[in-house]
Specification:
The chain is an alpha+beta fold. It contains 6 helices and 3 strands, in the order βββαααααα. It is globular and about 40 Å long. The C terminus is likely disordered.
């Protein structure tokens, strides 16, 4: 039976640390019936530097047995006010994740699961993946976005409104 793993990168938002420092993060939605994932629906926000971290970790953990797709290039002239640049980066990030999720070897990687299904920071994901936290990867994933659905219909309604491919 073919298992479906769908991922969307959408909803870019500018986040300001202070007057001088800002970044864009993106909503990453995952919808799957794959046995590789405990949660069948998840939604997290990630920034470009976290995608860079994920690619580095996947490369290390696969011990160079897998040729990973490239991320969209870091552009020194990237502007948060340029909608076309933001859209191109978002498309490139989505293509990266789609290709990653097609590789069975990578689907068992703890860093991938934490990246897609937890709100942990890079340092917390790193600590969790290496067993240096009081919680497991599965516990971190289950804690993310805990929301009760009253019925299967509520689940699909939420999916349709929050993680559509537009």
């Amino acid at each position: 039976m073919l298992q479906v793993i769908s991922v969307w990168v959408r909803d870019p938002r500018i986040q300001k640390n202070d007057f001088w420092h800002a970044y864009i993060d993106y909503e990453v939605c995952l919808h799957t019936d794959s046995v590789c994932f405990t949660k069948k629906l998840s939604r997290v926000r990630r920034r470009y530097s976290e995608f860079v971290w994920l690619r580095q970790k996947l490369q290390e953990n696969s011990m160079l047995m897998v040729k990973l797709p490239e991320l969209p290039p870091k552009n020194p002239f990237f502007s948060m006010n340029n909608a076309q640049q933001i859209a191109e980066r978002m498309k490139g990030l989505q293509m990266f994740l789609e290709q990653i999720l097609q590789n069975p070897l990578l689907l068992s990687d703890s860093c991938l699961h934490l990246f897609l299904q937890s709100q942990l920071s890079v340092s917390s994901m790193q600590a969790c993946a290496t067993g240096r936290t009081s919680y497991s990867v599965a516990q971190a994933v289950q804690r993310c976005g805990l929301r009760k659905f009253h019925s299967e219909g509520d689940l699909h309604k939420n999916l349709d409104t929050s993680c559509d491919s537009d």
